[in-house]
Predict the structure of Transcriptional regulator.
Amino acid sequence: MANDNLSSTEQFVWKFIQDNLELVPFLSIVELSERANVSTATIIRALRKKGFTGFSDFKHGVAKNNSSKDFTNLERADSDIKSAILKNEHEVTNTIKMINIPDIEQSVQRIKHAKTIYIFARGFSELIAKELLVKLQLLNKNCQLSDDPNIIRTLSADIRPGNLVIIISLNGETPELIEAAKKTSKNKIPIILITTNADSTIGKYSTIELCGFKSETTYFPAFEVHSRLPLQVISRVLLDSYVIRTQK
């Protein structure tokens, strides 16, 4: 491209951008400058020498390129297999679009300042809860997970202020989790709900609701085993954000 005579600093920032192409579309130029430890002016100069009018022009080009990538590995699959694969992409993409950044920021602060974090989950959501538990413990947070309905009902009544409850529920309508939400809310304990149902009963008692997108397509119609992929995505974003904020 034109004016490709980058200084050593501009070469560094250009390499940094290329190494983080998947992340760049989600950053402001100020955030990028902080991550790369260079000035915004350096970023602009490097991009202009690479033929872009500015940072917005570059981000638009990256986003357009990413969205136009062909799923060439799907060309050999029949329509049913393609549908199954793209269903997962649809859930992930829409869940990311639904994430409210202020809610993530507030959740991070709640986790940071909580003395003990109580995680409640049932069914397949327990798998997400167990991963969340282990990773928070690795980050030196005092956490405990309850997945037994009787323990959930009993324990939720005894949680005291200064602590935090995280409930993971696909539909937000599990009876024992609703009961737990009622009790903890009554005791003024903050609740973070990770769900795919924006109008759930548990949501009425929650302090923060992190809601993902659930596809209505299921390949196990006779059983309640819907994909927990949206919950996994939200949990991962929350954990990564917590690490980023606490490391700073």
